Amino acid sequence: MYVVLETICDLHTQYPEISAKCSDNTRIVAFNFVKTCGIVSLYKSVMITYQLNKICEMLVPKIKELIRQGHFKDAAYWTINLQITHLFGIFDIIFPLILQDKVPLAEMYLNAAKDLALPTVQFLDSLLDKQKTVFEHCDEILTKYEYKDVKHTVLTYRPMSKLVTRLAKTYKIDSHFTPNLNFTKACSYMHFLWHKYRDGGMSCDAYRELARDAASTKPLQMDLITNVASYGDFDEVKYWINYFNIPLEEIADDIREDLKRHQPSENSDEIEMLNISSSSETTSAVNNGGATNKSKRANATIPNNYLTLALPIDCVILIDDRAKFHEMLEYLQGQLLIAFDSEWKPSVCNENVISLLQIATPYRVYLLDCLSSQLSDELWQQLGQRVFNNLEILKVGFSLHQDLRMLHKSLPLQLNLNAKTCYLDLRELWRRLKYLQIVKFPFGCGSNSGGSLCALTELCLGKKIGQIKS
């Protein structure tokens, strides 16, 4: 085959006029000779040498025959090279390639047939509807088209959701075109929040605020209630039923029965009136946007083994207007060392945007409201130029790569990301010290501790960061 390829290339080089002298019949013979060889370079050489693009109309039926015979890979290469992808639909080439686990080739095809990107993503997202399994959604299609060499591992939820995520990101498809993927992401996110709250890594108020934002639709609200009920926290179940104002008859029978079983006998009527006259504590909490935390974690006070702020409260300054921003710039520009951290509320479907930037010196803490409309692009550019890009100021942080990436993406700071000498990442320094094993920490060896900032502060200062109140 390689000899044939070399001969064809030599023919075209030595006799360029051969292309013009070829008859359509000769072109068909050339196509038939190599149509299923699988060598892309040979396809291209034959196409150029024999000018197969002149007989596209004659080749379309032959490519459809390749599809009927299950040669989807070859059909994809021919349609791409001949630039006739617009003549074939999702179920002709793209979906069969996905079923055969030839995803890279399917993506190459979509790069050539960009008009099919959105319909493809929408169709694949429809397979993620959890009323059926992915395979059950595809059963009718598989029967109709009789695809060959289907890899059934592809027809499961996890690989299909990953594919939809990647394609939507690659082709910049808006999240409202992928409702089933959005639902899955939101459910997973709420389950993550619940586990983090149960493990003590998040306060009740923080958990409920984030969960309320994530549960933006009725199905998500029902999933949240079902998930919480599966862990037996029926006080929390009652809170969410009241907050979302969901009629009790819409709650699953098993959850209603569990609520009755876990209700004290003297308050048995309360279950029947959850949406009308719940206890004053819960009702007041719902009206205020959050219920009283009934867990032990929320009522517990911060013990002495947690770090507290050593500065008076007037040293913590909120920056939300132009005058305060200029005053802060003048102060920071005279510092040799500052620490910074950024905060953003996680978003399930949209891109995360920084909402708060914290900058600290030994004597002041600045909280910059990144969402304030009074802070113009010009002010942020000054902060980038006079502070972050200033080589004479050492900027200290923990896991700086993530913070700098988010700052660069969210704010017009115009950061010089190559100016690495003016940044000190405590996490990276700690990793190197643990590897060298030449430093003894004041409150432990540090070799078996976790890699969090909380663990580092405990090793160095003997106290943890209070995560419940943070």
Would you kindly provide a written description of the structure presented here, covering whatever features stand out?
- GO terms for molecular function: 3'-5' exonuclease activity; metal ion binding; nucleic acid binding.
- Residues 318-410 form the 3'-5' exonuclease domain.
- This is Putative exonuclease mut-7.
- It comes from Bactrocera latifrons.
- Keywords: Exonuclease, Hydrolase, Metal-binding, Nuclease.
- With 470 residues, the chain is mainly α.
- The chain has 3 domains: 2-170, no CATH class; 182-291, no CATH class; 313-420, Ribonuclease H-like superfamily/Ribonuclease H (Nucleotidyltransferase, domain 5, 2-Layer Sandwich).
- The chain is 54% helix and 6% strand.
- It has helices at 2-14, 18-21, 24-34, 40-49, 56-68, 72-82, 90-99, 103-112, 117-126, 134-145, 157-170, 179-198, 204-214, 218-230, 234-244, 253-261, 269-272, 280-287, 296-299, 322-333, 377-388, 400-410, 426-436, 453-461; strands at 316-319, 337-343, 356-360, 365-369, 394-397, 423-425.
- A 6-stranded mixed beta sheet has the order 1-4-3-2-5-6.
- Strand 5 (394-397), helix 22 and strand 6 (423-425) form a beta-alpha-beta unit.
- It is extended and about 90 Å long.
- The protein starts with a helix and ends in a 9-residue tail after the last helix.
- Residues 276-302 have low confidence and may be disordered.
